[in-house]
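Schema walkthrough. Field components (list of strings):
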Amino acid sequence: MHAKRIVSGFAKSTAFLTLAIGLSAISSMAHAQSAWPTKPVTFVVGYPPGGQTDFAGRVVVANMQKELGQPIVIDNRGGGGGNIGSDIVMQAAPDGYKLLVGNGVITINPHTYRSTPMVDPLKFTPIGTLLTSGLVLVVPATSPVKDYKQFVQYIKDKAKTPEGVNYGSSGAGSLTHVTMELLRERMGKPEMNHVPYKGTAAVAVDLIAGRVDALFDATSVISPFIKSGQMRALMVTSAQRVPALPDVPTAAEAGVKDFEIISFIGLYGPPKLPADVVKKANSAMNVALKDATVRKNIIDRGDEPGGGSAEDLGKLTQTHFKLWGGIVKANDIRVD
Amino acid sequence: MDLFANLALGFDVAFSLTNLLYAFIGCLLGTLIGVLPGVGPLATIAMLLPATYALPPVSALIMLAGIFYGAQYGGSTTSILVNLPGEASSVVTVIDGFQMARKGQGGRALAASAIGSFFAGCAGTLVLAAFAAPLTQLAFKFGPAENFALMVLGLISAVVLASGSVIKAIAMTVLGLLLGLIGTDVNTGMTRFTMNKPELIDGIGFIVVAMGIYGYGEIINTLSQHRSERRVANTKISGLMPTRQELRRMFPAIFRGTALGSILGILPGSGAVMASFAAYTIEKKLPLTDGEVPLGQGNIRGVASPEAANNAAAQTSFIPLLTLGLPANAVMAMMVGAMMIHNIQPGPTVITSNPALFWGLIASMWIGNMMLVVLNLPLIGIWVKLLSVPYRWLFPSIVLFCAIGVYSTNNLTFDIWLVGIFGVLGYVFIKLDIESGPLLLGFILGPMMEENFRRALNLSRGNWSIFFTQPLSAGLLLAAFLVLVMLMMPAIKKKRAETFVED
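Field assembly_structure (string):
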């Protein structure tokens, strides 16, 4: 860890020297109260480099460190369904030097993992939303279903045949799985068989080939298949239509009320993070997210830039935590 | 013909000075990280991805592709010289490559690997250019039942591949399967054999197992011998280039490897690994010519053929990526990420909407392969000299680099402990005279096989006929059955015994 810290300029401040000599941890906390940050900040990412969560952290780092005047180090701590990274920040001192780039999956994990302890996402101090992304409901292009209304009828009819209905997901207990369970509940619980896959690539092949009947997945990964005409999109779960798919209706437009589901990635601090640190970090994040290049990088990837207040992220975390708690219990989805 | 016009367009794009430069940087960087054990192309590409924002998309992809081949090539170097397979597909290269290095023929093995890779790379690129569009349909034909059948064939061949006792080979395959089961079960999401360790929820990484069993196991074994009897490497290096006779044996092997690799590379997931194992199996089954050492004891065919196979597969694995947007492995998934960042949607439209990019990338693959040969043939002398470093310096460096490489993926010290444990296990295997190849193959294919098997039954509502009613799946299972029969036939059994009895 220590080796990873970047010393940015020798004569940065006497405060830094004091720290480097390691006089006392208490003095560093006193500094944190007033002048955070006085040394490099670590963003813990609970996944290996390369995924969406890692991207969410890296995309804002350059602008945020300019704003905060201290380097930001990304620390990938993969494993445990993202929980290893979350746990590190949960246990960290509330001095603002270890923050979490947290995937919204932290609001699902505690419900689906029953014997492995998962961190309680409500205990984190929310700082701000980095990015959000909607899900899209797709069927194979060869399917006779053209819109959501036909979809409901088709599923209900096919569920009664011996063949039955198969729906794919990118993993048991993943957002793509629980979202379809929620929709199934709304359709009046027709018999639907869940077929989990490892990630999107494998399930995409089987959907296009018609081996599974339906799938929810992130718009960013699915839109190329829709554009190429191999899959047909029925609705998106975000509040507004997605720029990449302007012709696809939102859930509300398609006739499903209260079906706003997004995957989100937020910046969180350990419990009891001082308010002034939250405020400073939040404003630096918002400055970064307003930068044209940062926005372009996020949008080009198919996600939407986040932003907003710490309370917004807190509310987002709470509603999703409550929502998934209900769905998981009602459908007895469990991971261990 | 269209193909030539397209290739001309591609070379036009790739031969610009800047793109040549990026191809060179990528290959060099890739070779370097490939030579460092454990630091794989995945981590490197992830780190470099933000740096490519500023580059034009074609240049960025050319550089990333260069890293990918370079790393693959560099990985073979460590496999041959210090018994460290950096990637699943170079596990079999270790067997004969390291034996050759011990006999002082490390240079020849490296040259065989370079030449084999280059030829396969060229052929693979041609296949990619000519058949990309029609071959994509093949990938769609592979559902869970077909994937399962293919892996059954692969695993049974692995037993055939192993030298010595069939019982040991089966035991190792099963042990590999069991190790592969550690982690989260894809079908139910349940965690298995994790002993409540959160570090094990995502399973054990391939690198951890390979480094431990091959790298650390070999080091422990060497250290356990008295200095006078150590056979680290013959310091007398006999020639850097293969002899004319070796070349004559090598080339047909390269052809066979290339053909296998080109076909298997198209399949998502396990293509390159299966290709290299299958190529090795075939070489092992072919009769030896006069004066040729058996495979497993340092035969040049055992290096050239699997190396050709994995490189050809590396090329053709771009087919599902470029035409379907479906990444065959994690590195390819990063390439998709890179394309999306540059606002290119990979998928069937990429050939028509971005012809310069598509054909430019294909041309740059060929250039990258050539650059690797140009870069690496002169370097062979330097790599081989590495072996003349006294062992008391060499082994701590290998231990250290492995630890750094393993740590860098997840930043977990737990993984380093695991490498240690597998090192001890590897030492035990050497002492018991058991080959580790089947274990690795079982470890990689086991979880995929289980996943596909259960998915197929999930889709068919538990009806087993799904494996036999699909012609592809039925054909592959039949082939697996024939291999099994061959294994049991007494005549072949006798020949096995003759060939594989250790001296």
